[in-house]
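User: Okay, second chain of the day. Same drill as before: sequence in, structure tokens out.
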Amino acid sequence: MAELSCRHFNGYKPCGRSLDCRASHCKAYEPIGCKVLVVGLGAMGAVLRATSVLPGIVRKHPGAHITWLTEKISSALLLENPLIDRVAMLDFSSLLKISGEQFDLVFVMDKDQRIGGILHQVKAKKVMGFKKDSAGLGIVPANPEAEELWQLGLSDQKKFFENTKPETQLLYEAFGLGEFQRDPYVLKLTDYEIAEASRRRGKWLSGKRFVVGLNTGCSALYPNKKLRVATQRELIVRLQRRFSDVSIVLLGGPEDSQRNAEISKGLKVICSPTDRGLRDGLISTQATDLLISGDSLGLHMGIALRKWCIAWFGPTCAQEIDLYDRGQKVLSQATCQPCWKKVCHKDVMCYDLVELSQILDAVERGLSQCELPSSKQPSSEICS
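Assistant: Same drill. Structure tokens below.
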């Protein structure tokens, strides 16, 4: 009889690893320790950052079979992940597939009203993170360890000024995974993607020594997390004036195509492809040595790929991002930051008060480190 408890069994046909689907006859047989569902529906950068909890889940629950439920747009970031057995998208078909399954543990990372419906459809022995309250009106902690992260969402004072923990730690602790281990993001490129990144980097170098990526955009939800076009052009001019051995590449998604064209006009820079999807964006990021970015998906891609990252912050909280000792943070001089506002009508915006000289100094420091073994690289710094 087919071995239903094997990690590789797909439900109705051979997995391709053996001609005989019996544990006693298959060398690839791998029993499932427990069934885990991770619900991660947030922004793409948040989903990528949350992969840092996967090593903790596996440590605490050896042999866990992990399904990750996410939005379709984020699913590409989870492909090839060695710690995820199955990626399920938030659509009718995928929800039907998992609705009848029994999960030992469900980890919910989002304070999202939709989780009530999701938890109603799946069979969960235990929920960690967040859930709907008994009346179905609000989001509440599902376990005592999630109380701290929940409280931060209720108080700007706590979130903006009192909290010192990165979001990776807050989520790890909210999931009750024990002592925080500071695990990195988990992201794997295919052999093709690695080879293409190497080819792309060789082309972009054009005789220079380093490729510096400038991530120019951000989500439309928080438009103030990007610098003005004129500011980015000034930054490029000053970078090229100070560093003769760098090739500058503009990074971004489809929404940044026109913006990158405006930024690059008349300047000797390279515009990376912006219309080929998230995985191609990862290839372009992998092809760089150093990344300059606001608090956006592009920054999280750089962190996941272990690039030296120079991250500037205006409306968002710098302490929530862990650069893993591979980079430097530059804070706006605005006295009202952070604010997490989606709309602001001030004449002088927080992104106008980011000191480009601090970014340039950070680039100099980063270029001196990006060829060193990571164990020899100094800790991240914050400039404010």
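Confidence is low (pLDDT under 50) at residues 374-380.

User: Thanks, on to the next one.
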